[in-house]
Specification:
globular
């Protein structure tokens, strides 16, 4: 293959779109059978005659229309991509720009510009795509990932199909931004490891923090936030946090692995957190639904 160096800078408009398929089939009831037509023999009172017994009965017929398929309200079909993708690994270039565009079309945020640079935002988007499909979450585009990028036809979505909220799925280790029942964006995340911890409080060295690193399931609301830069939390620095229960927040971090690793918070990349703040996607009062179990 001849490699051609090309520079791509395609600005992505925000997509308020939705995600994957859940179908239901409805089949109308069978039509009732038609009436039976019968020929009745006749007799006379004269000399007895032999009558034929030719009773003719039409077989009942049943007509059922073909089943219809209805998409769930949070599903959007985007279709296959017309051309195959290259297994770029983590390399930069024109093929990576095409992958960035496809990830955005499928609902995985990979940065605001498809610039062909395989940076942190792209690694996180690829990892989210792989987690969503149950592929090994390496953050690299291998042959399998490239094939799925071409042939997946539905935009990613969370479980919720109504309301405006943040959905955190601990089983998939994914975070969904949902607006009016439609999944707007899907992000890679890392929630609480559920392992015991003991650490000196970063804000008060006389205190020792102990716990089990749990991101608690339930319905919560964003109740406080820190709008700018890094903040010194009790267990370390966190970036532009939005707290939703006690000291547990969704926040930016430099490390978002493909497994639960936090003390209980919901980690996103710093670039993703900037995007969420700049787009005003999670204002104070936003519902946060946490569910699932760690993989």
């Amino acid at each position: 293959m001849t490699h051609v160096r090309r520079t791509v800078a395609m600005t992505l408009a925000p997509l308020a779109l939705a995600g994957l398929v859940a179908c239901s089939q409805t089949t109308s009831a069978d039509a009732p059978p038609t009436s039976v037509a019968t020929t009745i023999p006749t007799t006379t009172t004269a000399a007895p005659t032999t009558t034929e017994a030719p009773t003719t009965t039409e077989a009942p017929t049943t007509t059922a229309p073909a089943p219809t398929t209805t998409l769930a309200p949070n599903v959007e079909i985007v279709g296959e991509f017309p051309d195959p993708f290259v297994a770029v690994g983590t390399s930069n270039g024109f093929e990576t720009a095409r992958i960035q565009l496809r990830l955005a079309q499928l609902g995985f945020w990979s940065g605001n510009v498809a610039d062909g640079r395989y940076g942190q935002a792209t690694v996180q988007a690829v990892m989210a795509f792989q987690k969503y499909l149950g592929l090994p979450a390496t953050g690299k585009v291998n042959a399998d990932t490239a094939a799925y990028l071409q042939f997946v036809i539905e935009r990613a979505h969370g479980t919720a199909d109504s309301g405006t909220l943040v959905e955190v799925d601990k089983s998939k280790q994914l975070l969904f931004i949902i607006v009016d029942g439609k999944t707007l964006w899907t992000f890679n995340t890392s929630t609480g490891s559920e392992q015991p911890y003991e650490a000196v409080n970063k804000n008060d060295p006389t205190k020792v923090e102990k716990g089990d690193s749990i991101t608690p399931n339930g319905l919560w609301r964003v109740n406080r936030e820190r709008p700018e830069g890094w903040w010194e939390g009790d267990l370390g620095e966190i970036y532009r946090p939005k707290y939703f229960v006690g000291g547990v927040a969704m926040h930016g971090m430099t490390s978002i692995p493909n497994y639960p690793a936090s003390h209980g918070c919901v980690r996103l990349s710093t670039m993703a957190m900037d995007f969420i703040w700049d787009a005003g996607l999670v204002p104070l009062g936003t519902t946060v639904w946490v569910h699932g179990t760690n993989p």
